[in-house]
Amino acid sequence: MEKQNESFNSNKKIRLKDTRIAYYWNLVLYILSAVTFADGLVSLSSKIWGGALNDFGLTLVFLVLSTRGEQIAAYAYIKDPEQKDKVIRALVENEKTRKPWLGRISAVGWGLMFAGIAIELLM
Fold first, then answer.
1. Is the Cβ–Cβ distance between 5 and 79 less than 8 Å?
2. Which domain holds residue 51?
3. How far is CA 37 from CA 31, 44, 79, in A?
4. pTM score > 0.90 for this model?
């Protein structure tokens, strides 16, 4: 196990995005996003507007979370707290630089969920 941690910390022979944890994290969240999208379509066809908005918002949030597999792998594999913090900060900065639209998509998803809850409460 220590040899595997060294590969993450020093020469990066194994990339975090290629780990099983990152793979399964992405897979589960893609499946959850597909299920919530399908549920949103069912709610929409049943004219349950609040439930549809809530499900579509949750779909967007799941899709954004599915891009966080490397961060989850860093939490699982890197034992040194300082190194873990350094790697996660680098991943977050890299994501903000390469994918700035993820924050907006997440905000839209949360907004849709809150709008769906408000509609459900008012109806």
1. yes
2. 2-122
3. 10, 10, 37
4. no
User: How many domains does the chain contain in total?
Assistant: 1
From residue 58, give the alpha-carbon distance in Å to each of 14, 34, 43, 64. Answer: 32, 10, 13, 10
- Token pair for 36: 């919530």
Smallest CA-to-CA distance from 71 within 102, 117, 112, 45 is with 102
| Residues 36-67: tens digit of each pLDDT | 999 999 999 999 999 999 999 999 999 998 88
DSSP, residue by residue, 15-28: -GGGSHHHHHHHHH
Q: Which residue has the tokens 């809150």?
A: 114
Output the furthest CA–CA distance in the chain (Å, rounded). 58
Write down the pLDDT at residue 13.
58
Spell out the alpha helix ranges (H) of the chain.
2-6, 20-45, 49-65, 69-77, 81-98, 101-122
Residues of the chain with pLDDT under 50: 1-7
